[in-house]
Each structure stands twice: as C-alpha cells, then as structure tokens.
Amino acid sequence: MTTPFDHPDTLYFKMKTACADDWYRYCHHEFVQGIADGTLPLDSFKHYLQQDYLFLIHFSRAYALSIYKADNLEDMRAASASVAGILSEMNLHLEYCVQWGMTEQDVVGQPEAQANMAYTRYVLERGMAGDILDLQTALSPCSVGYAEIGYRLINDPATKKEGNPYWQWIQTYGGDEFVQGALKQIEAIEKLAVSRYSEGRLESLCQTFKEATRLEVGFWDMGLNQSF
Ligand SMILES: Cc1ncc(CO)c(N)n1
Question: Does the keyword Cell division feature in the UniProt annotation (predicted)?
Fold first, then answer.
C-alpha cells in the first residue's frame, strides 16, 4: 500500500527505514491486530486507554518544550497548535472512559505504568538534553506512527468496521485531522533539517527514533499484559 507518509527523500523516512524491524513490530503489534479485528480483550484496551491518558499529559508537556526550543515565531505557532491537538485528542479517551463509568479524576488518579513513564520521560530527556531536531525526532514515532497505523486500518478491507468496539479509535487515528497532523510533523523535521542536519548527526538521530519506536512496542505490550 502506498501511503502519504513514505517519501524516500525525507529524513523521517531515512530514520524509519533504519529501524525497519522495530517499526514493523510497532505498527503490526498483536495489540494493533486485536484493534483491527475487534478481538482485543476489553480489559487490555481499558488499561491501555487509561495509561494513554496519562501518557498524553506528559506528551503534551514534551510538545510544549518544542514551543520553547523553536527557532522562530512561525514554528512556535505550529508547535502550539500541536499541543492544542494533543489536548483535544484526550477527549476521545474521556468519551470511552465515560462509557465505562469513569470520570477524569478516576483516570488521572491511576498509577503510571513503568512502560509509560519510560517512554514519556525518555522523550522529555531527549528534548531537554538535545536541540529542537532531537526533540522533534523523539516525538515523531508517536505522532506519525499512530497515523500510519490508523490510515492502514481504515483502508484495509480486512478491518472490522461494524460492531468493532475499537472503530472509534481507528477513526480518530486514521482520520484526516490526525493524518494531516502527522504530515505536518514530517514536514517540521524536513524544515529543521535544512538548518540543523548534517550527516554526522544521522546515527544519533536514528538512535533516538529507534528508541522511541521500541518504547511504543513496550507501550502496546503494557496494554496487552495489563501491567504496571
Ligand atoms: C503511546 C502513544 N503513542 C502515540 C499516540 C498518538 O498520539 C498515543 N496517543 N499514545
């Protein structure tokens, strides 16, 4: 399947293909398959979604750091729109939680799973220790990966649509708004690369991208196993 995310001459594509095996494990994880065919145990999804709510709180902090680290006002505005996008993505989670009789207070009162803490703090650390390109690289497996997954599931005829309890999730991440946000993220990296990329940085950037991708795999595992 050709996707809007795969332009071979982008830095994003270079970093993704440098960790192709990990990327495949992320995008084709058993958890994702269970969402696609509706067979994922509901308790795994509930655990995942509550953890993801906590994830998005820290993830929006990391995106907020990209406002601080931006090179110019235009990039600050774009980063600010991304923060707003994440804070509205959280509404999906709350809608599901309300159906399960949970309030926002119940969700934010949950302990944070280790896989969750590892991922969000890793991204924040890359952003604090590095520059804006390191930070945007650490953020990208999250924002682009979910769009790639959602886009594939929406367009795959094998995906169960009717009666799939996870269809709303698929629609959120495969929907136009999220996909456009992901394309903006790829563009943002391209734009930063003009002034900040040199070949000497490639290895370290690929490492950051790969670690974030592996942490995404760990996040699905955490959901599936309902672990803390
Ligand atoms: C763990 C994780 N990765 C990516 C996204 C997409 O924003 C999300 N909601 N959660």
Answer: no
What are 154's two structure tokens? 């929406």
User: In the chain, what are the domain boundaries?
Assistant: 42-218
Report the nearest atom of ligand 1 relative to the CA of 119. Answer: 1
pLDDT digits (tens, 9 = 90+) for 34-59: 999 999 999 999 999 999 999 999 99
User: How far is CA 80 from each of CA 2, 34, 65, 226, rounded to the nearest angstrom?
Assistant: 30, 34, 10, 33
Atom number of ligand 1 nearest to Cα 216: 1
- CATH of the structural domain 42-218, one choice from 1.20.910.10, 3.90.76.10, 3.30.420.40, 1.10.150.530: 1.20.910.10
Residue whose CA lies nearest to ligand 1 atom number 2: 142
